[in-house]
Amino acid sequence: MQPADSRPLRHCNHRRAAAVLLVAAAFVPVASCAATESSDPLTPRHWRCVWTEDPATAALLSWSTTEAGQRHAVHLKRIVPAGAEAELSADSVDERTIAAQRNGRHTGDSAKLFYHHARVDQLAPGATYQVVFETDGRRSPTMHFTTAPDDDRPIALLFGADSRSGISERQQMNRLMARMVAESYAAERPPILALAHGGDFVYDGSDVALWSQWLDDHEQTVGADGRLLPIIPARGNHDHSGVFNEVFGFPEGDRNYYAVNVGPQVRLVTLNTETSVAGDQTKWLAAELESARPHNRWLVAQYHRPAFPAVKLPGRALVHWVPLFEQFNVDLVCEGDGHNIKRTPPVRANKIDPTGVPYIGEGGLGVGQRAPKPERWYLKSPDAKVGQDHHVQLLQFDRDQLSYRVVLMSGETFDEHAWPVRPAAQRLVPGDETLAPAARAAAAAQPQTPR
Amino acid sequence: MAETSAEATRADAVRQRAVWALRLAVAAAAVGVWRWLCQLGESPLLEWLHSPRDVGGWGMGEGVAIAAQSAVGWICLGCGGWCLLQPHWLPAAWLAAVQVVLAWAMTETDSGFPVSAQWLGPATRRAFPLLTNSLRIAAPAVLAWWAWRRGRQATDHGLPVRSRGFEAVLRWALAVTFAAHGVEALQHNPVFVDLLLDFARRWLRFDMPEQSARWLLTAIGVMDVAVAVLCVTTRWRGVLLWMAAWGLVTALSRVAANGWFWWHDVAVRAPHFAVPLAIAWLADAVELSDEILADPTPGAPRAASR
After folding, report:
1. Chain B residues lying within 8 Å of A280, measured CB to CB
2. Tens digit of pLDDT for each residue in A261-305?
3. Are the beta carbons of A279 and B194 separated by less than 8 Å?
């Protein structure tokens, strides 16, 4: 099925382009209906935008085909908002075609599937780009995505994990997320920029057929207006084998721990519980937190196996990462794997402490839910909240607080909470000289008040 | 005649030692399984029972799955005690079956080590837990076999004379277990990497670089595979003693690195250090029995193998 607007993108006057794009944006076909219905093995499918570097200026645009094909490219064009044409110079018109730098066949023989990755950089922060994926002349529907801003505006992220089973529920959750994203832009709420996925995408990470099914379903996160939901992936215990790196464009053998800024004041650290936790990764984490803490109002971590599980046993993160989270006053930690809903109170030194670190998550993007164990000290009501239902967690970051909302598959809200911004003293790293002297003085004068 | 009788008594005593090693290993592993299934509660078995059918699970409700897992654990504890007090084929066979089920649950829930070997094919790769757990399966299985045979083919001493079959099964299971763990070490299983790093940090006060741990694991992997080969191609006693010592070290490394909370990890690995000793004793008993069978008359020349 060809989209209504599948013409090649050509250089043109940017005002005219803006007008055309605005009209096009209103009439683009519902992206989620398209490519998987095509029997053409070269039609691009499994469209995705992956954020593992600087989301304000770079993105990985990826897709799949069933045959290898020869020429793979993405066509990119910046969409100029209505009324902003005059403010932008001619240099701001960004229209280009980027050949996919990395193409190959997915490892494994359960299904034949070819991946294509085009890394695009030099993007404008906070800008929306129209994108069309193309393989050998076959084009995807016209879609778009928005880069992370470089100004300190409120933003939002979705966190979810464990989409490895429960296909029908997974699809429903994907459609729910697409609606949430659309609403966040339409209602002028903090826009939902991306989905941080805490791992366990599929049941058997070496099975390409399962990945293909997941990628098919992931197309349903594309909104009715063609908006791609960028994904920030963490590896889960079921996501073993090299296929994970192939799907999300990591280099072969990459160990999948990294950090990105999804706003100038929001740093998201993604960790990997499925490789060595005690070694290089922990050293990297210590350095990352030390450098990031003073420069970010919000410091968030995500990974798969929980340190403070609601059902299972604690993972190795408890011994190796939790002390660092507490040392550097991480604001929020998102965990998966437990298949339930969890929000702990702030924890420090294995006690509830208002200055501590709260842990949320446990995964409900499709997988069957389990009964949490509210008798555990960090899960007791009223300080904590636990439950079981398919869900996604909405995190909204602004200047004063980090708001958290658990949205169930039905669209209902299960839990809401907010953590105020940490006092400046808690965002300092001993010996750090990068903050302004006034801020340091204010921080020094401020007692270690509860958050 | 008196000399032959003394040899037979000695063979029985050695064989008794082997059987006791097996009984202790099987009982200890049963206690470990009980703690795993009943006290800690989280296991591949639970996940398998609870997982939906479309991904290979049993689709049980969580409560039912927990109850089933708990029942299995308690039965294991009873069977372990039974095997220790009075070996019988039934409890030993149950324990062997549970170990097969646990390994299969690891396979079905993708919770074993994801061995990287595309050339093996996905089905074979997924069966890897059956290899790493082969000794935990073989120990109770051989005990069941021995108890069953003892009931049907008792000697004057209440024990079967020929132990060659038991020894062969255990020897191969030991070799497969070592080889499979060697492959994991060669592929730098992150759990092993962290065991080394945590052990060095906790006991040696040494911040070992991760790369050093990986080199060490490569050496350990080569050694494991080498002794696995030697185990089935030679009858060197030193190889078995080394395997027993290494099995004990690797089992204890779980508590050494992670603390006493994880003592069941040592208990379930009891066959890894007890079975090599049992094999060594069984080998002695086999040789002694061979002499008796080959040389029933006093004063005749001794068998060449001696």
Report:
1. 210
2. 999 999 999 999 999 999 999 999 999 999 999 999 999 999 999
3. yes
Vertex B200 angle, CA B198 and B202, to 5°: 65
Return d(Cα B60, Cα B65) in angstroms, integer: 6
Domain boundaries, chain A: 14-146, 155-445
C-alpha A21: how far from chain center: 26
Using CA atoms, how far residue A145 sits from A51, A56, A123, A425, B207, in Å, is 11, 11, 11, 37, 45
Q: Measure B62 CA to nearest chain A CA, in Å.
A: 7
The DSSP H or E segment spanning A262 is strand A258-263
Tokens at B60, concatenated: 């049980």
Residue closest to A48 by CA, chosen among A190, A174, A164: A174
**Minimum-distance CB partner of A241 among B114, B190, B209:** B114
As a CATH number, domain A155-445 is 3.60.21.10
Contact B146, B131 (CB under 8 A): no
CA B158 vs CA A317, A373, A377, B153, B306: distances in Å? 54, 52, 56, 9, 26
Does the pLDDT of residue A32 top 70, yes or no?
no
Q: What is the pLDDT of residue A437?
A: 46
Residues of chain B with pLDDT under 70: 1-4, 118-119, 122, 153-162, 289-306
Per-residue three-class SS string for A405-425: EEEECCCCEEEEEEEECCCHH
Q: What homologous superfamily does CATH list for A14-146? A: Purple acid phosphatase-like, N-terminal (2.60.40.380)
Cα-to-chain-centroid distance, residue A104: 24
For residue A26 the two structure tokens come to: 């209103």
Listed in sequence order, the residues at least 6 apart from A167 whose beta carbon sits closer than 8 Å to its beta carbon are A213, A217, A366, B54
- Structure token digits, residue A6: 């599948």
How far apart, in Å, do the first and last CA atoms of chain B sit? 19
The amino acid sitting at B100 is V
Interface A-B: count of C-beta contacts within 8 A: 69
First-to-last alpha carbon distance for chain A, in angstroms, is: 53
User: How many whole angstroms separate alpha carbon A234 and alpha carbon B14?
Assistant: 55
> CB of A235 within 8 A of CB of A272?
yes
Which one-letter DSSP state was computed for residue B36?
Answer: I
